[in-house]
Amino acid sequence: MFSIRRSLGHLAxxxxxxxxxxxxxxxxxxxxxxxxxxxxxxGPADLEQMADAFRSTxxxxxxxxxxxxxxxxxxxxxxxxxxxxxxxxxxxxxxDNGLSKDYIVREWPKDDLGYLWQRSIQTHDxxxxxxxxxxxxxxxxxxxAFAFSHAQxxxxxxxxxxxxxxxxxxxxxxxxxxxxxxAQVRRLRASLVAGLxxxxxxxxLWDIRWEELWHRPLAELRTEYLAA
Length: 228
What we know:
Largest sheet: none
Oligomer: single chain
Structural class: mainly alpha
Shape: globular
Helix content: 55-70%
Strand content: under 5%
């Protein structure tokens, strides 16, 4: 009986966090609250199976093995990067949109999944710059669609479990659009198709150390990493 009540309590928490995500799919805290509510239902064996799927994936496995994390830097220090470089484009993206690279401060788990979540947050805005997506509703929706199909293409196993959270985020974006932005539903559909299509066309981006490429020309990097 206790386990049934606990399961019902977990399902209620998932339902509430998903409802909150529909209301505000752009909130990082709402997203992580939903992610945590899903992971509560997963046992240690499930989480290890998910981690093993990532470890066995080219690119992601290398990333986990290297455990590279962003070095300390200040966005304003990149103002001196030459125009046309990744560093200059990143600086303009962050400052023009009033963004902070430390917008999420959390105590990440020390295991492989915790590392992947931490590094994915660090690289999120680099992906925005490389892919040309704005940090608005449609841009975040399209980059989420890109990330979903990019992961599904990369993984050799565990696609359902790994895609569940991002897939739910895409659904929350779509439902938010229907409920709160009906005029953008057609553009949402186009963004979904474009993001999903693009995600399977480019080489894996997971293990790229963007912070070591500040002075590389952005156009050159896009040709190198994003060419179909």
